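INFO  loader      accepted 1 record
INFO  loader      residues=267
INFO  predictor   begin
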Amino acid sequence: MGAKRKRHKQLALPKLDKNGQRRGGPRAGAGRKPKDGVMRTRRAEPHKVRTRGKPRFPRHAVLRVVPVIGNLRKRHLYAALRMATIAVAMRELHADDVNGAFRIVHISIQATHIHLLVEADNKLAMSRGMQSFMISAAKQINRAYSEKMKLAVRRRGRVFADRYHQEIIETPTQARHALSYVLNNWRKHREDRRRGTETWSVDPYSTGWHFTGWRERADCDVHWRRRETYDPLVVYFPKTWLLCEGWRKAGTISFDEVPSARPSSPR
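INFO  predictor   done
INFO  writer      dumping tokens
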């Protein structure tokens, strides 16, 4: 018998451009190049199909900002985000039955991210409502950032790092946890230990001032007095049963409560 014929592996032709240069092929390093050219150490929010939810179920949404913006817990950025809450509140006044209503009920501004408790009539209302807030917030933040940094040309870059993360709230326990997590998130990040916060019972960078369910104020007949120099964030009173009364079935919420992290809310 003759020697076994050797099989030759077919070689792929190189890809040449119009100038005769080789292009394509694997690139050094793993993964796809980011669309905006910025390498991230944190994984972006995946583009998965959003769950529909129901009008009676509120949602906990989280937005992260790009590092260049810096710490959001500054007065000029607080004022910018307050203007965004006003814009979204005014949008609700003109909501129609086709698109549905979208309401921000509570908001908490942390150093690198924003927590929101919102109510939406449907998936479209949620999408457009969050889009409205993100667009308004980005414009206001870029304006405030440019003025603070005294830029000759106003900044027009992106403000939010990726899509918003959301969790649908379906039970009283979830609702109670979400309220505590959002309103007391500053204690989780130890912002309550910074200078100037010693006299605050609630986070001044949140809507804790609006919340009427604090355990320490259960026997109070009137709302507490607001400081003349403090302009609160503008939000709506809740309409869903879970955020109005349902959460109380899982226990009251204290000023000093420190929320713990949970897998479904990675902030």
